[in-house]
Design brief:
This protein is an alpha+beta fold and 262 residues long. Helix 1 crosses helix 2. The N terminus is likely disordered. It comes from Caballeronia insecticola.
Length: 262
Amino acid sequence: MAPFFEMEAEANSNRSRHFRVDERKGRDGARTFLRSRRNWSNSCFFYPRHCAMKIFKPLYSCLLVAAVTACTPLQVVTHHVSSSESSVPVGHYELDPHHWNVSFDVDHFHYSRFVIRFDKTTAQLDWNADGMSGSSVRATIDAASVNTNVPLLDRMLKGPDMFDVARYPDIVFASTGFQRTGDDKGTLTGDLTIRGTTKPVTLNVTFNGHAINPLTKQETLGFSADGHFSRAQFGLSTWYPAVGDDVHVAIQAEFSKAPASQ
């Protein structure tokens, strides 16, 4: 029996030693927790926006997930987009702020087409019973939102030699007419204003379709468009001929109509 009692005593000694270690860890953990609480309080006091982001970002993520999950797999599988313009309700539509793209691209030393995009745009579409033939659109681009992924170049484009955003903050397109070239295609003419200069331009437009968006429950229609213009006509001749004069415009846009109850 003696060996048993010796083993028991050794086990008790080990438990006591581990307990002391765990106790120290507990005290250290408590101090760490209190320090973190103080740091959190200080960060919230000095950086309230950072603190708010930590609090609300998870909440935003949850709401986004809830919205997406509300769009069931069945709704996605059975979702149908009509290519008929006659199915689109007449009325006023606004550009979906999350589903659009406007970019310019120009020749760069004959190596490639250098892409310039804009990050802020608003647009309004007034849809007529005649479809694209009788409808009108107006788009306003925030010139200061130009983005090339090259910060130095962005600053140069915003400067007085190019877009001169301090004097001319907006790039505006207003449609003036439409000529159908196919069942879902046509040429949209309009006035483009850059740096206070207005010139006519033509865009090739494709109507991609219409349906009630299964996620937002709003009437939604989409378009693709592209066209060309001479940048020199708008006083944007800097860097020529290293940078080409011909500007290609590429547009993707979704417009939504708010429910009648709103």
